[in-house]
């Protein structure tokens, strides 16, 4: 596929969809955290590494702006109790 001259080069080239890890690489790029939960700035130049713990997808994340490092876990459903005021 030829690159379109009016579009910028894609910095996140995906592997060939036929590769065994192709679907996982695509999901990682679509689901990875975009903003730091501490300072709210973009994680474009940060580090995001994905691992799995059972069914949970865990993103080890480092923010280049505030140096926050921690895990961000994606989940389908959350139940949160609010204490009495």
Distance between the termini: 60 Å
Helix-strand sequence = HEEE
In terms of structural class, how would the helical and strand content be classed? alpha+beta
Detail the poorly predicted runs. none
- Report the C-alpha radius of gyration, rounded: 17 Å
pLDDT average, as an integer? Answer: 84
Give the tally of β-strands: 3
Please work out how many helical segments DSSP would assign: 1
- Please indicate the percent range of residues in DSSP E strands (runs of 2 or more): 15-25%
Shape: extended
Give the spatial strand order of the biggest sheet. Answer: 1-2-3
The main β sheet shows up as: 3 strands, antiparallel
Helix content: 10-25%
What does this structure look like?
With about 80 residues, the chain is an alpha+beta fold. The protein has a domain at about 30-75. The protein has one helix at about 20-30, and strands at about 45-55, 55-60, 70-75. A 3-stranded antiparallel β-sheet has the order 1-2-3, with no helix packed on it.
Task: Give me a quick take on this structure.
The protein has one helix at 22-31; strands at residues 47-53, 56-62, 69-74. It is an alpha+beta fold.
Question: What would the keywords be for this entry?
Answer:
85 residues, alpha+beta, 1 helix, 3 strands, 12% helix
Topology:
Elements: H1 22-31, E1 47-53, E2 56-62, E3 69-74
Antiparallel strand pairs: 1-2, 2-3
């Amino acid at each position: 596929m030829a690159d379109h001259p009016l579009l910028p080069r894609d910095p996140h080239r995906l592997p060939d969809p036929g590769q065994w890890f192709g679907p996982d690489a695509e999901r990682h790029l679509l689901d990875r955290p975009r903003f730091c939960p501490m300072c709210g700035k973009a994680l474009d130049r940060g580090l995001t590494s994905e691992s799995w713990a059972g069914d949970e997808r865990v993103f080890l994340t480092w923010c280049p702006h505030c140096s926050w490092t921690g895990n961000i876990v994606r989940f389908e459903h959350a139940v949160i109790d609010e204490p009495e005021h």
